[in-house]
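Researcher: I'm preparing a figure for a lab meeting and need a structural model of a single chain. I don't have an experimental structure, so a prediction will have to do for now. The sequence is pasted below. Please return the structure as tokens so I can convert it later.
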Amino acid sequence: MTSPSTDGRANQKLRTRTAIVQAAAELSRTGREVTMPEVARTALVSEATAYRYFPDLASLLQEAIAGQLPTPEEALEPVAGSDDAVERVAVATEFLLRHVLARQGVVRAMIAATVVRPAAGGVTRPGLRFGLIDHALAPLARTLGATDPAALAQLKNDLAVVVSAEALFSLTDLHGLDPQDAIASIVHTASTLTRATVRDHLAAEGSLRIRSSH
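Model: Understood. Here is the structure written out token by token.
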């Protein structure tokens, strides 16, 4: 059996850890810059205490935002009945970018941590974009995916570059675009990529039918 004092210390550690995680989760929803000193202040602990529980900001944020991300099905609910890949990609792109914009403080912190030290401590970014892209392009699995899986895989790779926080921040931070204009530009680019791939697939199918009929 453990002594009451041991149980009390364990419970206090759990309360402190929970307070730190909850403070980080709360700050992540504000969109402001998230730093370990600010998390510590919000949790009413010292910065040194926060670092005793989490070795770096990235590992703390990874735990704090777990469960906050919507599923691809939830994100694409407005177009759940549509098989139009272009429409679905446009909705997925806008959803992701508005999500990033609303939580850009934590997104920037995670990008900084994982780009500078990609293999440090097993910390990984959530990768919401990949699930969204896969779900948005699901209707193409029966058409393009069946006849030219390499083309579908290439489209997913192309979209992963465009449908991203990095693309959004490049346009707002480096190019000076208003966030809403930046989102509109990326939605346009993602839609154009998808439309071109679908158009090429339909054209190839049409040519095949013509050759088959002769």
